[in-house]
Structure formats: structure tokens, C-alpha cells
Amino acid sequence: MIVVSRSTVHADTSAAIRPSIARSATVRLRTRDLRRRGASTGAWRSIASSARRTRSAGASRARRSSRSRCRSGTLGSSPSGRCCGRSSLIDGEILRGGQSRPPPYTCAMPRAVVIGAARRVGRAVALELARDGFDLVLTHRADRDGAMDTAEQVRRMGRAADVRFLDLADLGSLAPFADACGAGAVDAMAIVASSYERTPFGSIAAESAEREVRVNALAPLLLVQAFTERLAASRLEGGGAVVVFGDIHAAGRPRRDFAPYLMSKAALHGMVESLALELAPRVRVNAIAPGVVAWPDGTPEPERVAYESRIPLARPGTPDDAARLVRTLVRDMHYVTGSVLRLDGGRWLR
Predict the structure, then answer these.
(1) Domain identity same for 85 and 124
(2) Which among 45, 59, 54 is positioned nearest to 25, based on CA atoms?
(3) Residues 260 and 330 in one domain
(4) Looking at 94, 120, 155, which one is the last position of a domain?
(5) pLDDT at 336 exceeding the cut of 90
(6) Would you say residue 314 lies in a domain?
(7) Which domain holds residue 221?
């Protein structure tokens, strides 16, 4: 693909509308002449109609020119290297009155990375972002078939989906994974995958506790570090966005038998605050702290009933509840960073 500079875009656009500029000059000359001669109302109406047709024709030619170049891959100087589309530089700076700042959605398709997209919450997040117009990079560890199924659903929506293996426990694989995703901008990253191990206090071992911290806190930290330049290159309104998944019980009201897990999630909450400061103003970093939005496999029914009885909204959350909040943080909450948002139906109150 050939990428052209902004000056070239303006030059090409000027060529597309040059004939209409000449006609506009002719209209202005005729207008001054009519003023001097005291022209009739009918003559003035004819002049106004001609001016409107001239402006419309020039704008149409510029739009056709931009669409043609975008399809051929000769237009697009976005930081991501992607072709500009529905809100191109031409649409934003020439056809909308010469405004100096392009509209929010400059690139043809924004791109998001969803870590852990094979099923449950990760799949719901991927599909929600795809519905909102994102092309996606999806990761899996054990469930490749699930990730491929998620990707197929994304593609049926008309979005691109690239599926890659990633094990968060292997910290050395994170930077190579980021490199494999390409040099283009990444507009959003949702880190959904985590380790969730019930560990009674008397059976805690150093190796298993260290793994919880490695997967749930160190891996997200290093992933964001590896993608920082790509996230900072986002042209979305509000800049790049990172959303991680914490836990309400790591922010108060801890549960028995989960000390290493909750310790790792508390560290993740601390990371969110630190990185929000480190990466501002180009990248926003937030966490969602769910109660229950998808029960872990094998959770006993009595435990579910007891937990749900303490939720003021009288139901567990759903993966779609979490996915909608991710999308809102990415697209709409441009002035929110460093926050841990509860998604628990009020469970923290009891």
C-alpha cells in the first residue's frame, strides 16, 4: 500500500475541486456586475442557484476522488498505516469547512486486542467491539477452537479477526506477541484472561501463588508496556484505551480460600492507577471489578445460591454486561482513567 502525506492529500483534493473553484470565481464576478447594474430578483435567484450547484458538484468530485484513492490504497496517512475511510482527512478538513482537527474516527476501522477471547466474557467483549466497528486480534491459550469460533462470528459481522496463541504465564512471549501484531495503531486493549485458583490458606505453595501474580498482574503490566507506542498512536476520540478485569473482592470484602488470587488482583488495581498516570494523556487505563458475571466451571450450586442471595439486584451479572461496559469505557468515557469500576449488582454493599 502506498501511503501519502497530508500535503499530498490536500494537493490531490485541490486538483479534484479546481474546476469548481474557477466556476465559483465566475459566479462572484457576475454577482458584482449585477450589483452595479441593479439586477432583478429573478437574476439574483439564478445566480444563487448556480452557486449552490457549483458547491455541490465540487464536493461530490472530492468525495469520489477520496473514495477512489482509499479503495486503491493510495490514500491514508494515519499512524496505524491503515487506509482512511468513512471519516477521512478530506471529509474532515476540506468538506467540513476547513476545520483543523479531524473527526473522531479517522481510520477506516479501529483495531482492538482482546486477551482471552475463546469463550464467556472474552468472547462477549470481542463480539461487542466488533459490533462497534473494531477489527480484532484475539488470543487463546488452551481453547483454540473456541477462539476460532469467536473469530468466525466476528467475520460474519464484516470485521477482520486474527487469532493468536498467548500464554500469560510465559512472560518472555509477551513482547514477541506485540511485535507479531504489527506496527499499526492499537486503539483498545481488553485483558480478560486470568488465573482463578481456589487455594485454602493451609495449602498455599510458593509456586502456585507466584503463578497467580505472574498471570494476573505482571503479564498485564508487561503487555501494556509492549503495546504503549501502538496505543498512543490511536486516533480515536479520547486516545487509546486499556481495560483490565480486577475483582470486587480484591477491593474490599475478601473471600476465604482465595488469598493468592485476591493478592494478584489487588496488585492489578494498583497497576491501573500507576499506568493511568504514566500513560496520560494519550492512553487511558481502567479496570472493571466484577462480582459474578460468569460462574467458574464446577462452582457448586449451593455456593452460587448463597452468593446470589447477597446481590441487591437479585441476579448474577452476564458476560454481555461486562462487554457493554468495556465498549463504553473505550468509546464514550473519554474523561475516565485510573478508575476501578464495580460491576457487581451492588454485591459490595453486603
Answers:
(1) no
(2) 54
(3) yes
(4) 94
(5) yes
(6) yes
(7) 111-349
111: three-class secondary structure by DSSP: strand
Is residue 286 a contact partner of residue 327, using CB atoms and an 8 Å limit? no
The DSSP call for residue 315 is S
Same domain, residue pair 12 and 125: no
Strands of the sheet containing 240-245, edge to edge, are 161-165, 135-140, 111-115, 188-191, 240-245, 283-290, 340-343
Q: Tell me the residue length of the chain.
A: 350
Q: Are strands 283-290 and 340-343 parallel, antiparallel or unpaired?
A: parallel
Q: How far is CA 144 from CA 11, 28, 139, 141, in A?
A: 48, 66, 9, 7
- pTM: predicted TM-score of the whole model, two decimal places: 0.70
* 228 shares a domain with 344: yes
Predicted confidence band at 100 (pLDDT cuts at 50, 70, 90)?
very low
DSSP string, 23-67: HHHHHHHHHHHHHHHT--HHHHHHHHHHHHHHHHHHHHHHHHHHH
